[in-house]
Amino acid sequence: MSQPIEKAASVHAGMEAAASPASSPLRRVVVSLLGDRLALIGTIVVGILVVVAVLAPVLAPQNPYDLAQLDIMDGRLAPGEQGISGMTYLLGTDDQGRDLFSAILYGLRTSILVGLASAAIALAIGTSIGLLSAYAGGRADAVLMRIVDIQLSFPAILIALIFLAILGQGVDKIIIALVVTQWAYYARTVRGSALVESKRAYTDAARSLALSDRRIIFRHILPNCVPPLIVVATMRVAYAIMLEATLSFLGIGLPVTEPSLGLLISNGFEYLLSGDYWISFFPGITLLLLIVGINLIGDALRDILNPRREG
Amino acid sequence: MSSYLLSRLFQTVVTLFVMSVLVFVGLYMVGNPVDVLLSPMATPAERLEIIRAFGLDRPVWEQYLVFVSNALQGDLGNSFIFNQPARHLILQRLPATLELAFTALAMGLVLGIPLGIWAGLKPDSFASKSVMAFSILGFSLPTFWIGLVMIMVFSVQLGWLPASGRGDTVDLFGVPVSFLSLDGWSHLLLPAFNLALFKISLIIRLTRAGVMEVMQLDFVRFARAKGISEKRILRVHVLKNTLIPLITVIGLELGSLIAFAVVTETIFAWPGMGKLIIDAISVLDRPVILAYLMITVVMFSVINLLVDILYSIVDPRVRFEGGSR
Q: What is the rounded CA–CA span in Å between residue B8 and residue B15?
């Protein structure tokens, strides 16, 4: 009973917003995002982490991968202890005397880069395939969507394992593996909303103006598929970062020369049992803040951009 | 029904075929298993002999055909490292993985459904909000990191539970299981809960959403108007309709539990097949990787099929139709 009313209300709200020229869709989203307390916290946390990651070379007291700057005598120092060189290690050091704070900054960089790059590529590929599928219809659509269904019936980690077994280690390789695990989500989302949008009145209007198919798809249908895509993309970035960390932790993701947060956590694993918790703990906390932050933003975006669905 | 089963069977065969070609050709192009097989001291003559013995000198399609014809007879090749049949290696470790996955699933259901119902019935209470906060955390926290923290707290700091291995096992129909001995349980508890955490969160969310949706439907109002007690409405009308969609999810999640056991097994040194595949990948033990994939794909397809059938039994509205589900 309450649903039609809600729907009517949301349509009404949409009309109202459209009527006032001052509020662009982007602005509206940003305003409601910052109005939600949890989303605001998420945005601040993610914002800080991204800035810190970008500025890592400036902020880090030490380049953690320049072996000349490391002193093995400083290995496994607890947080706050002073090393032989007189440097105070805020978050302690790992087994090779590497400053953990610096290592986390650089690791954060790799994690965010891998997450964003894989999501962007998967978004491009998935959107193209989804649009193609919706446009072509018929047999091609059925085959493409069957492939999507079958792929999604396998857990992402299994697909990633297969591709990493074939490809080996490396930043580019893990990005490929993550793209393969993710494109299907985007394809399905875009195809679904493209089919809905192509039946709307404005598409009919565009068609009756004899606009080209290409113009209708890219100027009319695609922009209207963006809101659900943003929601999916936010959640997927968080998932990609988590999956990359997991794979690197298992030792089949990134090579030791380009450690992400997952690899740092894995490095500390063997010392955990002897009580040296900080080597795994602090990179873990950082990873956690990043993922929880992105998920909080994603949750709020879903409510804002897709008011009819919940849960 | 039978045409439906046939089309599902066909789909499984196609999936198996695509997966095996992909992995076979992929692994063929990447590594040369000869380097794994040979000691660095081997002479060129020995090298050639090994290459011939394993059929590695033949073209890739021929090697693939040999693999397929052997696989159809149940022979998935010998592990390069252990020099044992790969199928045997995996099936030997399968019970440990299944035990872990099923225990985790049981934990997910036993904890997730009641908490979800509670959160769905009283969405505004403080307790219900805490449950939801817990589920958001359970979603966001990486499984492997939670595993580490659990080891840190319960094994290292408190010393309550062991951090690795399977403990004492008891033979059940010739299969060693941990859940029949107290020591086995103490080893099983941490890894199973670690694996279950994500599922508990998921099931809480799904149950809550389902309960909230069903509670608003007309038949619940009607049942109330008839004077049926709240308890009975909940037990008979709400639960039945909430649990049906859960079955699909649970089936799919069982597959993902088996796959994600890879992570938990690595952390808790649980001797399942996940640990085996990670080791196989790092040394390019081709037959084991292939065998693991083939067995997993078949297992997943069977689970998916069982879920579909179960679904149609529980929910008579679902009919088998070719193509669309």
A: 10
Span A97-124, pLDDT tens digits: 677 888 888 889 889 999 999 999 999 9
Which of B 209-228 lie inside 8 A of A, CB atoms? Answer: 209, 212, 216
Per-residue tokens: B80: 């390069």
CA–CA distance, A270 with A279 (Å, rounded to integer): 10
Across all residues in chain A, what is the average pLDDT? 79
Summarised one tens digit per residue, pLDDT across range B177-201 is: 666 666 767 778 888 888 888 888 8
Check if B19 contacts A (Cβ < 8 Å).
yes
Alpha-carbon gap: B142 to the closest alpha carbon of chain A (Å): 6
Q: What is the dihedral of CA A84, A85, A88, A91, to 10 degrees?
A: -70
**Nearest residue on chain A to B146, judged by CA atoms?**
A284
Q: Domains in chain A, ordered, with CATH?
A: 36-66+88-304 (1.10.3720.10)
Residues A286, B43: Cα–Cα separation, whole Å? 51
User: Does the interface ipTM go beyond 0.85?
Assistant: no
Please state, in angstroms and as integers, the Cα–Cα distance from residue B213 to each residue in A3, A58, A293, B134, following that order.
11, 52, 28, 21
> Would you state the structure tokens that stand for residue A248, as one six-digit string?
């690197």
CB contact under 8 A, A157 and B259: yes
> What radius of gyration, in Å, describes the C-alpha atoms of chain B?
24
The full set of domains in chain B, from first to last, is 86-314 (1.10.3720.10)
What dihedral do alpha carbons A228, A229, A230, A231 form, nearest 10°?
A: 50
Nearest to A105 by CA among A63, A71, A75, A76: A63
**Backbone phi and psi for residue B175, each to the nearest 5 degrees, phi listed first:** -105, 125
**Three-state secondary structure of chain A:** CHHHHHHHHHHHHHHHHHHCCCCCHHHHHHHHHHHCHHHHHHHHHHHHHHHHHHCHHHHCCCCCCCHHHCCHHHCCCCCCCECCCCCECCCCECCCCCEHHHHHHHHHHHHHHHHHHHHHHHHHHHHHHHHHHHHHCHHHHHHHHHHHHHHHCCCHHHHHHHHHHHHCCCHHHHHHHHHHHHHHHHHHHHHHHHHHHHCCHHHHHHHHCCCCHHHHHHHHHHHHHHHHHHHHHHHHHHHHHHHHHHHHHCCCCCCCCCCCHHHHHHHHHHHHCCCCCHHHHHHHHHHHHHHHHHHHHHHHHHHHHCCCCCC
Say if CB B183 and CB A302 are below 8 A apart. no
Give Cα B157 to chain centroid, integer Å: 30
Rounded to 5°, angle at Cα A13 from A10 and A17: 140
Three-state DSSP state, B7:
helix
Count how many Cα atoms sit within 13 Å of the Cα of residue B197 in the half-sphere of its side chain. 22
What does the block give as tokens for A275? 């009580």
Stretch B142-156: mean pLDDT: 83
Sign of CA dihedral A248, A252, A256, A258: negative
Q: Establish if A108 touches chain B: CB-CB under 8 angstroms.
A: no
Q: Does B293 touch chain A (CB under 8 A)?
A: yes
CA distance A55 to A61: 12
